[in-house]
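new request in #modeling-help
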Amino acid sequence: MFDTLTLARLPEEDEALRPLVRQLAQDAVAQMPMDARARSWSGFDAAFSRKLGQEGLLGLTLPKEYGGGGRGPFARFVVVEELLNAGAPPAAHWIADRQSAPLILNFGTEEQRQFYLPRICKGEALFCIGMSEPGSGSDLASVRTRAERTESGWRVNGQKIWTTNSLHSDYMIALLRTSGNPQDRHKGLSQLIIDLKVPGITIRPITDLAGDAYFSEVFLEDVDLPPDALIGTEGEGWKQVTAELAFERSGPERIYSSVVLLDGWIAHLRKHGRIDDATRALVGDFTARLATLRAMSIACTARLAAGESPVVEASITKDLGTSFEQELPNAIGDDLASHPGEAIAAELYRALAFVAQIAPSFSLRGGTREILRGIIARGLGLR
Amino acid sequence: MENNELLEHFDRMLRSACTPAAIREVEEGGSFDSMWEPIAQSGFLDALVSENAGGFGLTLAEIQPLLRALGRHAVPLPVGETMVARAMLANAGLDLPPGPITLAVALHGAGMPVPFGKTCAHALVDFGDVCELVSADAAGLVTTGVRGSVDAMLTLTGSGGGRHIERPDNGLLPIAAVLRAISMAGAADHLLEMTTAYANERVQFGKPIGRQQALQQQLAVMAEDVVAMRMAAQLACAGGWPLNLAAVATAKSIASTAAPRIAATAHAVHGAIGISEEFDLQLYTRRLHEWRLAHGAETYWNRILGAARLEADRCSIDWIRDAIFA
Ligand SMILES: Cc1cc2nc3c(=O)[nH]c(=O)nc-3n(C[C@H](O)[C@H](O)[C@H](O)COP(=O)(O)OP(=O)(O)OC[C@H]3O[C@@H](n4cnc5c(N)ncnc54)[C@H](O)[C@@H]3O)c2cc1C
């Protein structure tokens, strides 16, 4: 079953991007300790993102006429893999590059494409995702934040929450109710691009359990927007969001969130010359799973490259990937603390503590484990 | 793609040759001749034999879907093993004997189970320095006594008086392990199909049990394992011959790790009916358990993979790209 998910290769011309990205990523992390690199794709550095833009490494999936690379999902895979490999901070451009740009390309008007896409490709237009609300998490169709038509465009009222990077973003693509009420669920939802600099918007950062403040609450009070804030078709928000989530869920970030910790641990083992059978078996288990997940992730990328929206396949890969990412800190913690003769470097210890604490979020962000499994079950014909 | 046609043809042939009734007959010790004949007639046994030697000259990656079909149909004969053995024998310029040939590894001593040890005419035995084609009678294959099993224990530790061929680097274990990993992916795929179909049919509390979220979540995890198994098996075949040991280790590790989980979920969803002999589920779950152990279980292969990984002063992604995706 799910036979379309089949082994695919990264094309040579996309592999060719690797040395350049690697150089830039290495430069960016040169002064960063392991626990900072372990922040993985949460790490934010707008200057680094602009640099990637200048080097033509953003918007690789977009046509050249909009300033993109005119390549495709495989090229983006290579770039993302290299950034995560190094633990370089990609958060500034992350969401725009991954999902906002494809959304605008697919559903936007020509004017909207011309307006946003070239700046996204330069790393100069930063986006965040305004889906979740205090009362709407997994049950996203119940969103209450409203956009009403006015003479001059739209007026938005309501609240978003957990909006990653909203504090540093230029725009938020929000899922809003444009007609009916929450009981109408999937009907009457639309997506609007909200310029976060317009009056009426208050952004309040939320500090997370690791002391970072990546996400925020976004309050919207009588926020007036022009007519062309609407992206795509009024009332088609649910369909658009579903397509957007396939982009959000199918990338290699769903398997590599703990890879900096994994590499730190393996370096520790090598330093202490530990090669007993149990250690080999544990390292081999992680390696086999990571390799298989990589194959699955590339296979998902191939479906994107074929123009499909691999919703179920992405869910399969993300759920298995995040389970792996979450298991790593548990197993590594057990291993390190069960070999008392081997001193643990402070930055490895901090990286471990960080990943162990933040790991539950891996299977929440982008759709919870239970929701993804529900999507897979639907793919199996059970719902 | 012509490959699809090939697969359909092969699949149809297996479906008619390997009905559950025919499988049970062979498993109970009946003759396997009538099952073997259409398989031999089909010509597929020479898929890997070079074109010069009269075969199809296909690669392992190309026949991987066929090998998976063998697992999907619970074929109780060493069809993949025979394909490999025939290619090796033809390469060595030997005559190709009729009948099924299994692969056995004798270098770790006697007492390891050999898949299809009871349903072969010959065994190609890896002695560590040389490989030898031994007739089934001379191979010292002793039945395991496991009900329904077609595997046997190898007792042979010295030559069986057969023809010798050069031993490939790393011997027969990697290819034998990959063949099992691929068949496991096929068997697991069939179990997923059976189990979702059953979940949609079986009604309790007034609705199909598949409507219960608890079961949906378990089946979703099962699907993830099944896909991972298939991908890992494909990875092991991608590099062709000689096999990439790290990719082989990946495939068998993933397959062997997932096998008991998949079997457990399949049984849990089926309830008591799955425990009965006459229900076909047991044909597949028994195979998953047996093949998990055959030619090295997950820890065996994890150690090999881990040892190679720990030798390299590289980061994981780079190492995996070079060593497994090469
Ligand atoms: C680090 C991080 C970053 C985030 N960034 C963003 C962002 O940028 N933009 C944004 O819009 N959102 C963001 N989110 C929010 C994220 O999308 C939500 O956390 C997620 O959708 C789940 O919603 P919730 O947290 O309200 O949990 P709930 O929906 O309340 O779920 C709580 C638990 O109940 C389970 N549950 C709920 N419904 C069902 C059901 N029908 N069946 C079975 N189980 C169920 C869930 O699986 C979960 O285990 C982020 C979250 C995190 C952790």
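bot summary: Chain A has three domains: 12-126, 129-235, 240-379.
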